[in-house]
Amino acid sequence: KLLNQWLADNRPAGLKTDFACTSINLNVNYAAKIHRDGNNIGPSAIRAVGDFKGGELYYWSKDDRKTPLDKLQKSQAKKFNIKRKTEIFDGCRAHCVGDFEGERISIVFFSCKGYPKVGAKNIAFLKKECGFAWPTAERLEALKRHTEGR
Question: What is the pLDDT of residue 150?
Answer without folding.
Answer: 63
